[in-house]
Amino acid sequence: MPPVTPILEADCLVKAFGDLTALDGLSFAVAPGESLGLLGVNGAGKTTAMNLLLGLTTPTSGMVRIFGLDLWKHRIEILRQINFSSAYTSLPSNLLVWQNLTVFAKLYGVTRPKQRIEELLELLDITHLRKSVTGKLSAGESTRVNLAKALLNEPRLLLLDEPTASLDPDIADRVRKLLRKLQKERGLSILYTSHNMRDIEEVCDRLVFLHGGKVLAEGTPGHIYERFNRTSLEDLFIGVARGEVDAIGLK
Amino acid sequence: MPFSFNSVSALVLRYVFLYTRHPVRLVELVFWPLVDLLVWGFLSIYLQRQSAGAFPTTMTFLLGGMILWDVLFRSQQGVAISFLEDVWTRNLLNVFVAPVRTVEYVAATCLVGVLRVGVTLVVLAVVAAVAYGFKLTAFGIGLLPFLANLMLFGWFLGMVSTALIMRWGQAAESLAWAIPFFIQPLAAVFYPVSVLPGWLQPIANALPCTAVFEGMRTVLAGQPAPWGLMRHALLLNLVWGAVAGLFFAANLRYVRKTGLLVKVATQ
Known about the structure:
The structure holds 2 protein chains of 2 kinds. By secondary structure, chain A is of the alpha/beta class. Chain A has 9 helices and 10 strands. The two termini of chain B are 33 Å apart. Chain B is globular. The chains are: A alpha/beta, B mainly alpha.
């Protein structure tokens, strides 16, 4: 059987900001239809990795390939087929939900924007928010509207940066279930960063545990924490954060 | 992939939605220029009366200068404020990870500037005509190259402002408003270049807008449209455009390399 081309490949990524090396030879891949988590303590390099993969920051060295294409040589072509949602960005707060989604539908070249927007509002159970002011939405509603934006172009790859941050457990659970459903039904590939262990365990098929800009471990959540003789992913996370886990030379 | 007018129109559509949802923003767009127009207009009338009519053309020069200056200012604002709106609403990263080229983004901000100028210019032209008998049509066909050169230079100043804000963050936000006023004393808006000290005059003449304002006074004094001055302004604009473009591109590369782009977008 011929090898499957990864949807996304990070190849020996290094990113230095002056004397600080935020990423030190990061390499990983996301297979088609896979959901991969990026986990790590604050300062591990998750956000830097995400920014490099989105083309917001240029690497010091290394390469990012998406759909087999060099990100920096085929940036616009790639961006048409991926999308992004983050807890740290928002849509223009003074526009109505449908206006924001219309603008982004046009930006992504969606062929029937009104129909697509209606489909997504229904899928995410936010039809009633169509004429709501974006800035007046609750955190949960805002997350779902951002997800609607992220799904407008039927992306092949979705990059999610802490999408459930600041959500209550009920809404966070609904968002996780929705993402899993979309992944399975549409073969969507997802790269997911989070501090929330439950997010990682429920949404991700595999995870990459970053520490000090390097890959500490890679595999399924259970495989990783058992390997370090920890009882759970959270237990491992705390151990790494407190320096209790030997993070040298293990992968 | 070719330049996408669709992307430009999508970004402009955002502002159409914004201004139609918040008509008070349109009020803000015309309020300050109207205040300026009324102040300069009444000052002109006062000077004219005090001088017993010795300076009849002073009134038109001041009003013409004020209205045309606003064209440059609104063009610059269109570019800078469009970028800042994305920063303030934390939408900048959403736009930068959409399939939008930098040139398309800048083109959209310039088009927003044109729309802002259009609205302001119509209001000012009507009020100036009704209140002071000052008609922009006095410029004749020469008005178009005047406006075009001023808008171009405004766009280039806007690109410089935006590049500085990208680099220095929201601390540099005041530059969005201040940059045009760094050049206003030199741009011969309300007085001819000959009034400036000798050593400042070459600097003033290096600005495209100076030629426009000098040309404005020529037309208002009843002389033919100075096409030579307009060509000169256009040539200067080509140089300034290249400099502004290179400056913008260099800063964008720098902020992508240093991570400052993300920092500005999420602070």
